[in-house]
Write a structure and sequence with these properties.
Distance between the termini: 14 Å
Strand content: under 5%
Helix content: over 70%
Number of helices: 5
Number of strands: 0
Shape: flat
Largest sheet: none
Structural class: mainly alpha
Radius of gyration: 23 Å
Number of domains: 2
Oligomer: single chain
Order of helices and strands: HHHHH
C-alpha cells in the first residue's frame, strides 16, 4: 500500500504557496462558520468591556490567562505523554477507543470535581450534597473505561480477522 503525502494537483482546496491569502479565503463555505464565530467573539468582548468593573475584568483576565497556561503547561504535556505511551503499548485499532475513554473520563471527572471538593456548600446544609459523589464518579469512570476496553477489544479482533 502506497501512501500519497500530498493531495493531487487538481484538488480544489489545496493551499497555494504563491497565493496564501487567496488559499485561506477559499472555499466560500468557510465564511459561513468564520463570520458568526467572529461576531460572537466581538459581542462577548464588548459585553466584558462595558459591563464589568475594572476589578472583575482583572479577575476575568487572570482566569483567562491562567486557563491557557494550565492547558499549555499541564494538560497538553499529559496528553502528549499519553499519546506517546498509547502508540508504544497499544495496537493501532485499540488507540482510538482508549483515547475516547480517557477523554470522556477526564471530562466527567472535571465536571464532578466541584462536587467532590464540596465547593459552595454550607456545612450545616446536608441536602447540598446528598450523594456519595466520589463513589458515583468511580462507577461512571469504570463504566466508561470498561466500554472503551470492550470497544478496543472488538476493533482489535476485527482487525485480526480481516488480516
Amino acid at each position: 500500500m502506497t501512501r500519497v503525502s500530498t493531495p493531487p494537483p487538481d484538488h480544489r482546496y489545496v493551499s497555494d504557496d504563491s497565493r496564501p491569502l487567496r488559499s485561506a479565503l477559499t472555499p466560500w463555505w468557510r465564511w459561513l462558520f468564520l463570520v458568526p464565530g467572529l461576531v460572537a467573539v466581538g459581542v462577548g468582548g464588548y459585553g466584558l468591556w462595558t459591563d464589568l468593573s475594572a476589578s472583575a475584568l482583572g479577575s476575568w483576565a487572570v482566569w483567562f490567562v491562567g486557563s491557557a497556561l494550565v492547558n499549555d503547561l499541564l494538560v497538553a504535556p499529559v496528553w502528549i505523554a499519553l499519546g506517546w505511551l498509547a502508540a508504544r503499548v497499544l495496537p493501532r485499532p485499540a488507540r482510538a477507543p482508549a483515547v475516547v475513554g480517557v477523554a470522556v473520563s477526564g471530562a466527567v471527572s472535571l465536571v464532578a470535581l466541584p462536587f467532590l471538593l464540596g465547593f459552595g456548600g454550607d456545612p450545616g446544609d446536608y441536602s447540598f450534597e446528598p450523594r456519595n459523589y466520589g463513589l458515583t464518579l468511580l462507577v461512571v469512570v469504570g463504566v466508561v473505561l470498561a466500554v472503551s476496553a470492550a470497544w478496543a477489544a472488538v476493533r482489535v479482533q476485527r482487525a485480526r480477522d480481516s488480516a
